[in-house]
Amino acid sequence: MNSAQIEIQLIASLVAIACAIPGTFLVLRKMALISDAISHSILPGLVIGFFITNDLSSPLLIVMAALSGVITVVLVEFIQKTKLVKEDTAIGLVFPAMFSIGVLLISKYANDIHLDTDAVLVGDLTLAPYDRIFINGLDFGPKSLWVIGIILLITLSLLIAFFKELKISTFDAGLATALGFSPAVLHYGLMSVASVTTVGAFDAVGAILVVALMIAPAAIAYLLTEDLKKMLFLSIFFGVFSAISGYWLSHWLNASISGSITTILGLVFLLVYLFAPKKGLISVSYRNKQQKIEVSLLTFLLHLNNHTEERERHINHLNEHINWQKVKSKSVVDLALRNNMITLSGNIISLTEKGKSFTDKAIDYIITNDDSEIESMKEDFFLFRG
Amino acid sequence: MGTAILGAICGMLGSFAVLRKQSLLGDAISHAALPGIAISFLITGTKETNVLLIGALISGLIGAFWIRGITRKTHLKTDTALGLILSVFFGFGMLLLTYIQKQPYANQSGLDKFLFGQAATLLERDVWFMAVVTFICFIVLLLFWKEFKILLFDADYAKTLGFNVKAIDVIITSFIVVAIVLGLQTVGVVLMSAMLLAPAAAARQWTNSLGIMVVLAAVFGATSGVVGTAISASQNNLSTGPVIVLVAAIFVVFSFIFSPSRGLLFRQIRFIQNRKDLELHKTLAFMFEIAKNHKNISHPHTVKILNNFHGFTKKSLNKLENKEYININGKMWSMTEKGYHFAANLYNQQVEDNE
Predict the structure, then answer these.
(1) Do residue A279 and residue B194 have CB atoms under 8 angstroms apart?
(2) Is A211 helix (H, G, I), strand (E, B) or coil?
């Protein structure tokens, strides 16, 4: 590992952290797509900034780009307020238009400069270490490292300063207003941070990776926890993890770094999506199946409770009467037996005392819909939890 | 010609996307199509457009259905799912593209034209292909019109009627994916979503009927296709895609402002109108209060009495006279029979409203 490699990984990790923080709030506020809109619509700001300064590295470019990001947000909100279209349509209308303006400006007036649209969309981290800051001939490290470092510092201090306010306004906007925080100020503050981060990050990693780094770690973390602080730390962790492993993947494949980082993020999400302990696809499906069986069990027990005649309680009769498949009936009967709710003598099923009281409680619950009735049953069954 | 057809089909299908609140699905899918293009190139090694488009179609569909899966099975919201799929698929596509570019083939360049699209590269064959697909979509749309419509506005009702909601849903989504994949070549990944949305959003402002909306959106889409192509052809260095999108955006802005029933302009005019009416009614009600105290309702009063009441102007008095609610005679005014009744009813209505 040479120093350029370390620097690339450092930049990627810093970008990941800087993106993960606003990203978490965007995901929680259901505004994830705003980041996509911002990342596209900063283009005209960049181009105009370039026209003014004629210098690609001037800080004015970043300011202009962030400004056009904020303008996008304002426009989206304005269109939404007219109630003519829904929010997502508003986003979908604004950012392609902004992006088109940017592309046209470039292709019309700035064809010969190095600001080409591919670079904007995809970015190139490999070159980042070669764009260095020299002060009095001393090497102060890569420029993008400084840019993103400063942005990260600002974001972090804002986060720490306004954590409580952000938290309340994210989860209960009404309460936040009642407590006297202005939701608008927080909203636009968050949007500005998101814009600035996008701009700062995108010349290192490209617009699409910014979106991926904002949304994906937060989404992964959200599947794993419901605690805001944990979610922040987890998304930072996943962001940094994919940044570094993505770098090595790209090193190995000799392909684009931002593409590899995004791919790693996608893979991690896929894994978490499938295997997350509570929210994962597999555990959700398992729980659904479990609940299905329990509902069947209830139906079965109720049926037994209603019929005292032996004919109705014959095991074969149940098959036809409740219209279940053989396999399903068997699993339900097994479950009931395991819980000592029924006894089998020959092929005749009868309820035990425990089964009877369980059924009565269940009926009570269905009738009254009162939680206290089923406290004692919660231990055994998924169905009644939550 | 090609862009006109593209605009038409996008407008048609876009109406559904907009009404189903899936506006940004188009954006996500158009990005998700990229890895498909790269993979089909890796497998076949050709740059045959149709082969690449099939790859794009497959990966677009995978993206679309994964989005559905995420929103159904987890508590992540649609926007997160869209953004996630969009960026992850696109990143993966970029990874593959850069990987391809470093492979020792000679013919790998040109894949990235899918990023921004170039209408000029359209061949006659492609146009025919698009026309055929559009036609098929159109036929299916007509055949299942009723089902689509019910699903769109009342999915639960459709379910109770016994329609296979899932299947219809899949058909619509697949059509949107098809339209997007067709458009990739022309306007490119980024601007595709605008092609889908803008005509539909513009058409929505003019009508409340689904049928008219679909037709209008198709017309808007086709027009912006033609106009955009014409503008970009007339100038150097103007790429087609962005111009088309901007033309479509102008349509949208125009519709937002000038549409008769929903437009901002007319809404403002109606608003002012209402306010004026209210002022008139207020003046009239005040006069009524005065006139009520006299046996003869047409007993004349001086205009000066009204000075306590600030809501009147000469103009509003004249207006009231034009409506024959009052008579004005020099500096005196008196209520007419008609005005009295109107004001009395006005008052009654207000009482009822307050209760």
Answers:
(1) no
(2) helix
CA pair distance A343, A330, nearest whole angstrom: 14
Please name the member of A93, A100, A269 whose beta carbon is closest to the beta carbon of B84: A269
Residue of B nearest to A85 (CA): B201
- Compare all CA atoms of chain A with the CA of B263 and give the residue at the minimum distance: A84
Cβ of B75 within 8 Å of Cβ of A101? The answer is no
Q: Helix (H, G, I), strand (E, B), or coil: what is residue B259?
A: coil
pLDDT tens-place string over residues A68-127: 888 888 888 888 777 777 777 788 788 888 888 887 777 776 555 555 555 555 555 666
Q: Select from A35, A88, A209, A249 the residue whose CB has the most chain B CBs within 10 Å, as the one to mutate to test that interface.
A: A88
Identify the DSSP state of A314. B
CB proximity A208 to B under 8 Å: yes
Q: Closest approach of chain B CAs to the CA of A203, in angstroms?
A: 16
Q: For residues A371, A375, A377 and A379, what is the CA-based torsion angle, rounded to 10 degrees?
A: 120
pTM score: 0.74
Is residue A223 within 8 angstroms of chain B, CB to CB?
A: yes
DSSP conformation letters of A78-111: HHHHTTSS-HHHHHHHHHHHHHHHHHHHHHHH-T
Q: Which residues of chain B have pLDDT under 70?
A: 1-3, 20-23, 46-49, 103-124, 186-187, 189-190, 236-238, 292, 294-316, 329-331, 346-355
pLDDT, tens digit, for every residue of B96-154?
877 777 766 555 556 656 665 555 556 667 777 777 877 887 888 788 777 777 777 77
B335 DSSP β-pair partners: B326
| CA A244/CA A15 separation, integer angstroms | 11
pLDDT at A386: 38
User: CA geometry: angle at B322 spanning B320 and B324, to 5°?
Assistant: 75
ipTM for this prediction? 0.75
Residue A40 φ then ψ, to 5°: -85, -35
Percent of chain B with pLDDT over 90: 0
Residues A59 and A62: their CA atoms lie apart, in Å, by 5
Judge whether B191 and A100 are in contact, CB under 8 Å: yes
